[in-house]
Amino acid sequence: MDMCESCQYNMQVIEKIKNQVPDNELTTKLADMFKIFGDNTRIRILWTLFDKEMCVYDIAEKLSMSQSAISHQLKTLRQARLIKSRRDGKNAFYSIDDDHVKKIIEQMVIHVEE
């Protein structure tokens, strides 16, 4: 059975990682991404958005936080391309940008709970 293009690309990336030391630019980008995942509030926001898109008000309500605190963290998550937003009139709705984000957190949970 032939591998899909995405699977072939992922295999190439894995082989590259196994066979060479990454350059400084890549490791800096990785470290910056881990910093973003290193915040409790941002992890809780991502978790909240796992299964549905939500507006700032609903996220703040669910996490018992202020809307301004949530908005500040959403901006960081959006800049890192971990979430995306869509406007509907005056409201913005946020959701996980792609399945990779959810998989990263799921893998971290598995590791932490071992």
Please provide the count of β strands: 3
Total helical segments = 6
CATH architect. name: Orthogonal Bundle
Q: Which residues form runs of ≥5 with pLDDT under 50?
A: none
Rg, please?
Answer: 17 Å
What portion of residues is helical?
55-70%
Task: Give, in spatial order, the strands making up the sheet with the most strands.
Answer: 1-3-2
Proportion of β residues? 5-15%
Q: How would you sum up the global shape?
A: elongated
CATH superfamily: Winged helix-like DNA-binding domain superfamily/Winged helix DNA-binding domain
Q: What is the rounded distance between the termini?
A: 34 Å
Please state the structural category: alpha+beta
Q: What is the fold-level CATH name, i.e. the topology?
A: Arc Repressor Mutant, subunit A
Number of domains: 1
Average the pLDDT over all residues and give the rounded result.
Answer: 90
If you had to describe this structure to a student in words, what would you say it looks like?
The chain contains 6 helices and 3 strands; from the N terminus they run αααβααββα. It has a single domain, classed as Orthogonal Bundle (Arc Repressor Mutant, subunit A), CATH 1.10.10.10. Helices cover 65% and strands 12% of the residues. The protein has 114 residues and is α+β, with helices and mostly antiparallel strands.
